[in-house]
């Protein structure tokens, strides 16, 4: 899978996804870094068919209304340590990948992986 990890999430998450075999970039890898506008992130997601991984609910609204980004993983954990976040992804990555084979919008919180239709 191809992921684009947004600014509010740690670069270590992008590295973890790469180690797991996924083509992953973080906004820090882009020319404007963490200042990359949402519209540019959406453009990259559509052009490269990347799943945007974010805590920013604005992407949810854009995805539901405009179909942008290409696919969306909304992280709804609230404040969480980076280590706990990385563990949460490690525990759920197989399910996340399987869900994105069929669906375009998934939400991950501390207890659940929710697939939105």
What's the short version?
The protein has 117 residues and is an alpha/beta fold. It has one domain (2-116). The chain has four helices and six strands, in the order E-H-E-H-E-H-E-H-E-E.
pLDDT < 50 runs, ≥5 residues: none
Order of helices and strands: EHEHEHEHEE
Q: Quote the distance from N terminus to C terminus.
A: 20 Å
Number of domains: 1
- Major sheet strand order: 2-1-3-4-5-6
Rounded to an integer in angstroms, the radius of gyration calculated over CA atoms is 13 Å
Mean pLDDT: 97
Structure commentary:
This protein has one domain (2-116). The chain has a six-stranded mixed beta sheet, with helices on both faces. It is an alpha/beta fold and 117 residues long. It is built from four helices and six strands; from the N terminus they run E-H-E-H-E-H-E-H-E-E. The mean pLDDT is 97. Helices cover 42% and strands 21% of the residues. It has helices spanning 11-19, 38-48, 57-66, 82-100; strands spanning 2-5, 23-26, 51-54, 71-75, 105-108, 113-116.
């Amino acid at each position: 899978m191809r992921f684009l990890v947004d600014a509010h999430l740690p670069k270590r998450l992008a590295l973890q996804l790469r180690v797991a075999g996924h083509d992953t970039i973080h906004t820090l890898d882009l020319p404007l870094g963490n200042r990359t506008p949402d519209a540019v992130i959406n453009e990259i997601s559509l052009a490269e068919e990347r799943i945007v991984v974010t805590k920013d609910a604005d992407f949810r609204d854009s995805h539901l209304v405009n179909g942008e980004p290409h696919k969306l993983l909304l992280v709804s954990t609230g404040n969480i340590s980076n280590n706990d976040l990385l563990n949460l992804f490690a525990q759920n990555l197989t399910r996340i990948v399987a869900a994105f084979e069929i669906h375009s919008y998934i939400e991950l919180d501390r207890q659940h992986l929710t697939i939105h239709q």
